[in-house]
Amino acid sequence: xQWIDIGANLTHDSFDRDRDAVIERARRxxxxxxxVTGASVAGSAAAIELARRHPDIxxxxxxxxxxxxxxxxxxxxxxxxxxxxxxxVVAAGECGLDYYRNLSPREAQLRAFEWQLRLAAESxxxxxxxxxxxxxDFVAVLREHRxxxxxxxAHCFTAAPGELEDYLALGLSIGIxxxxxxxxxxxxLQALVPRIPAERLLLExxxxxxxxxxxxxxxxSRRNEPMYLPHVAAAVASARGxxxxxxxxxxxxNARTFFALPAxxx
Length: 266
Description:
It is a single chain. The protein is of the alpha/beta class and 266 residues long. The protein has one domain: Metal-dependent hydrolases (TIM Barrel), CATH 3.20.20.140. The chain is built from 9 helices and 8 strands. It has an 8-stranded parallel β-sheet. α8 packs across α9. It is globular and about 45 Å long.
């Protein structure tokens, strides 16, 4: 079996002391390829540089998270456009809307989201999407641009049935994380994960966040790592009533097709 983690924040400072070891541990657990999330122009540059140091193992996204939307100006768009042209970059984002924290004003979030969807369409690369407590506006904006996009994935899906149906109707792929492993917050996903068409399902850890709550024995650190992706996958396979081997085969194939990834090095 082999796995692909479509969302890992490996430039996060919690990995500064042992980043290479984290990557090696992931590969020992058959997580052979990982996509490093870009959340700002500077963060995307760091993700690209990290991917360059690990060719065909790490890849990057380039974008601005809604938390940082207020920092994105029109003057930054040429730099973001140039990042999206880099061969290590396989998607635009992480971009979208977050009305839960509202760390950037909603007007700034909407403007940044529109800009990035246009850049994604121009680049011909898919979009790595974030949405929290902003579903109506998110879907309205996305509907305007969806036909021009090469593809789109709802990263870290945790929401309700109606939101899932809207995403599927828009042709989105769905990213599932260790939220599924949290009996307090993620129990509702047990019924929703089987409703995701197999060809639309992607897996991610969102490291260093969302450490699976049901890991046993519990690690000393609360930091999540890509090596725990097979644990998330086992929960997904159980919810869908399928073997882990089958889950590994089609989710990895989905990720490779969606992000146009090369074969993983041995």
